[in-house]
Amino acid sequence: IRFDKLGQVFKTRSGPTEALRDVSFDVARHEFVSILGPSGCGKSTLLRMIAGLLKPTSGSVAVFGLRVEAPRDDIGIVFQKPTLLPWANVEDNVVFPARHKTGRVTPKDRERAGELLKMVGLSGFEKRLPEELSGGMQQRVGIARALLMDPDILLMDEPFSALDALTREVMGFDLLRIFSERPKTVVFITHSVSEAALLSDRVLVMTERPGSILTEVTVPVGRT
Ligand code: ADP
Ligand code: ADP
């Protein structure tokens, strides 16, 4: 992922808000990068641009050498809130990206959903409704859904922020296990310094608004 002098100015009724200024950095293939920074410094804005959900006002984002113009299948995204379909069971939520892309769900998609649910520790919950699950379990469903299309890149925007400390810790270790089995390029937004240190190959710290990358912190131990 390559960011080149990225800038974002939002036009609002009260005037322009500059969210990002001159952000340049590269994330290597299969690198796990965390981004830390105060609220409102532009982290979500940055992530939405990688996902193709928001067009930069200036500069560019490229993924695998191609400029990001629109959402794509090889990028999975996990939001702060699980955003599951409340009327659909766990399995139907996980296969949703396949339905969205092709209009139908194949037995292979369901098989893959089963594998992913097993990977996130939710075997046996396929037919449950989201409301029957805890917040942590719903977030695991969101992770399985993001992985369904086997994306090369996984983006996570404070995926654990609504969870209690113990669940967060367990989820952190689960992620490590998942990515050691299937390496991915990951950009992970978090407020937790310990989570960033535990999970990442590299930590980027963003300044106050308008955000630009302030420092790059090398994690000495991290994922060993
Ligand atoms: P963070 O994720 O670091 O908390 P955001 O990327 O959500 O920060 O927001 C960065 C800045 O851009 C904030 O000042 C926010 O209010 C503003 N902003 C974000 N999205 C929009 C939008 N769609 N319209 C106007 N302003 C926005
Ligand atoms: P010390 O203070 O002796 O360096 P810690 O108490 O910080 O050690 O950490 C003990 C173990 O718990 C380490 O393996 C560390 O990676 C892990 N750990 C610490 N904080 C977290 C966290 N938030 N999530 C997951 N594991 C953690």
Describe it for me?
It is an enzyme of class 3 (hydrolase). By secondary structure, the protein is of the alpha/beta class. Helix content is 31%, strand content 27%. The protein has a six-stranded mixed sheet with strand order 6-7-8-3-9-10, with helices on both faces. The radius of gyration is 17 Å and the shape is globular. The structure holds adenosine-5'-diphosphate (2 copies). The site of one adenosine-5'-diphosphate has 5 residues, from helix 6 and helix 7.
Keywords for this structure?
224 residues, alpha/beta, 6-stranded mixed sheet, 4-stranded antiparallel sheet, 7 helices, 10 strands, 31% helix, globular, binds adenosine-5'-diphosphate, hydrolase, plasmid
Describe the secondary-structure layout:
Layout (H helix, E strand, L loop, with lengths): L1 E11 L2 E12 L5 E5 L6 H8 L7 E6 L2 E2 L7 E4 L11 H5 L1 H7 L4 H13 L15 H13 L5 E5 L7 H17 L3 E5 L3 H7 L2 E5 L6 E6 L6
Parallel strand pairs: 3-8, 3-9, 6-7, 7-8
Antiparallel strand pairs: 1-2, 1-4, 4-5, 9-10
Helix pairs in contact: 4-5
Bound molecules: adenosine-5'-diphosphate (2 copies).
